[in-house]
Design brief:
Layout (H helix, E strand, L loop, with lengths): L19 H22 L3 E5 L2 E5 L5 E6 L9 H5 L3
Antiparallel strand pairs: 1-2, 2-3
Length: 84
């Protein structure tokens, strides 16, 4: 009786925590899913857009919470994760 052995690629894979493109996609997908779930459950959520922070209510109305003046000084993802 012969068993087949699955061949696995030996290519070195990039660590997902150092792959910022993958992290960005994961983050976007997670936030999109969270917004959908909040809307389905009738819960408000906050988000930032164009330097402003908004609150979206369950009825679909939006409320401006405040404007961010330091949007140009916001640290990139890489500097936040690569402290060491």
């Amino acid at each position: 009786m012969t068993k087949s052995v699955k061949k696995v690629s030996v290519v070195k894979r990039q660590d997902p925590l150092n792959d910022f493109v993958t992290l960005t996609k994961i983050g976007l997908n997670a936030s999109r899913t969270a917004r959908k779930q909040a809307s389905l459950r009738g819960v408000s959520y906050t988000y930032a857009k164009n330097g402003k922070i908004f609150k979206r209510n369950p009825d679909g109305s939006e409320q401006l919470i405040r404007e961010r003046n330091d949007i140009d000084n916001f640290p990139p993802l890489e500097s936040d994760l690569c402290q060491g």
